[in-house]
Design goal:
11 strands, flat, alpha/beta, Arc Repressor Mutant, subunit A, five-stranded parallel beta sheet, 3 domains, single chain, 44% helix, Rossmann fold, Helicase, Ruva Protein, domain 3, two-stranded antiparallel ribbon, 11% strand
Length: 385
């Protein structure tokens, strides 16, 4: 049966398969109920506007891994070190960055975000470091960048893995010395900011490819937090769905309550878009009010994923056989050439193997090995025919 007010419909209702990737079939005692997913154990911050965008601030601590992350965030409140947030797109890296800021000694200061992948490198430099008067056409006065505006606060560098390498050296200077030059300027600007970097990229691979500086990685990687994908913390799905329906219900006159069938479909979905995908799906449910459309969409994606996973891979055997055939032909041709060369040398030297080896420019033992390998008989006393 479902658990009471102490938690989500958990192990007594549904047991997750190993790895949390899908539900273990045949382990359902009753259908999952949306009403049994209480909004308890989370920390909904007031809506916050950051760079013109709405930031929910929802922090989930329903799963063991997220509870560990929450404890790490609380501990970070007593320090002032760079933080690197890793995870797939849509797992909530920006929300967690805001949470780190809110729990830190800088909570009263500004929190500014820049998506490094959203602008060309020259605009990213101007946005981060500002520009000096006369730096380019239209720059009639000094303009502060994010770092200056976030003085005594926090800067979130989202998608840091996509930052141009030329800018990474300038960012490294900020981390090392707390100062920089505005674009086109020659006056050093000192700032005191907490830098949080986030990315879905594999930075180690980016370093190997020459797209990310190793020294910058080590400067950022003081505290490393990997946010698990939603499919790895399925116990939060119904809980988050209920939160998003409540959050966006103001735009819907009659917000629907998902049926047990839809709840099960939500629990079994792979969620490649993670929390962002779940939120958009709940908004779609509120807007259309038709659960059957969502069920059809989830079923279609499940079939597509199953087909992709079970689709036979292109048969490599024919290509391998062709390659093997070519290799054999090449070896046969090589052996034939070597046999003819050895036989010619042996006949020329009246089957004197030492002289044949000299004639061939080969070691005597090598010649004996080749003769044995190629099946050339030892005709010690034979003469040229």
């Amino acid at each position: 049966m479902c658990m009471g007010n102490d938690g989500w419909c958990g192990e007594e209702l549904i047991k997750l398969a190993p790895g949390g990737d899908s539900l273990a079939p045949g382990y359902v005692e009753s259908s999952p109920s949306f009403d049994d997913a209480p909004l308890r154990g989370y920390s909904p911050e007031p809506s916050r506007t950051v760079d013109g965008g709405s930031l929910s601030g929802l922090i989930s601590a329903q799963s063991p891994r997220m509870r560990e992350i929450e404890e790490t965030v609380k501990q970070l409140g007593f320090s002032d070190v760079p933080v690197l947030l890793l995870g797939e797109t849509g797992v909530g890296k920006e929300v967690l960055a805001w949470r780190i800021h809110a729990c830190s000694r800088r909570a009263g200061g500004p929190f500014l975000k820049l998506n490094c992948a959203a602008f060309p490198s020259d605009l990213v430099e101007s946005e981060l470091f500002g520009c000096a008067r006369g730096a380019f056409t239209g720059a009639f006065e000094n303009r502060p960048g994010k770092f200056e505006m976030a003085h005594n606060g926090t800067v979130l560098l989202d998608e840091i893995g996509d930052m141009d390498v030329s800018l990474q050296a300038k960012l490294l200077q900020v981390l090392q010395d707390g100062e920089f030059l505005r674009l086109g300027g020659n006056e050093r600007v000192k700032v005191n900011v907490l830098i949080i970097a986030a990315t879905h990229c594999d930075l180690q691979q980016a370093i190997s490819d020459g797209r990310f500086r190793k020294d910058l990685f080590y400067r950022l990687n003081v505290v490393n937090i990997h946010i698990p994908a939603l499919r790895e913390r399925r116990e939060e799905i119904l809980w988050l769905a209920k939160h998003f329906l409540s959050k966006h219900a103001a735009t819907s006159a009659n917000p629907p309550t998902p049926s047990p069938a839809l709840c099960r479909a939500l629990l079994e979905h792979h969620w490649p878009g993670n929390i962002r995908e779940l939120e958009n799906m709940m908004r779609r449910l509120l807007a259309l009010g038709r659960e059957d459309l969502l069920m059809r969409e989830l079923d279609s994606q499940a079939v597509h994923r199953h087909t992709a996973n079970t689709r036979p891979q292109p048969e490599p055997l024919l290509e391998s056989r062709e390659d093997l055939s070519l290799l054999k032909k090449g070896n046969l041709a090589k052996n034939q050439v070597e046999t003819e060369a050895i036989l010619t040398a042996l006949k020329t030297t009246h089957w004197n193997r030492k002289q044949a080896a000299v004639l061939l420019g080969a070691d005597y033992k090598t010649l004996l090995y080749k003769m044995k390998k190629l099946g050339i008989p030892n005709r010690r006393f034979s003469r040229i025919a």
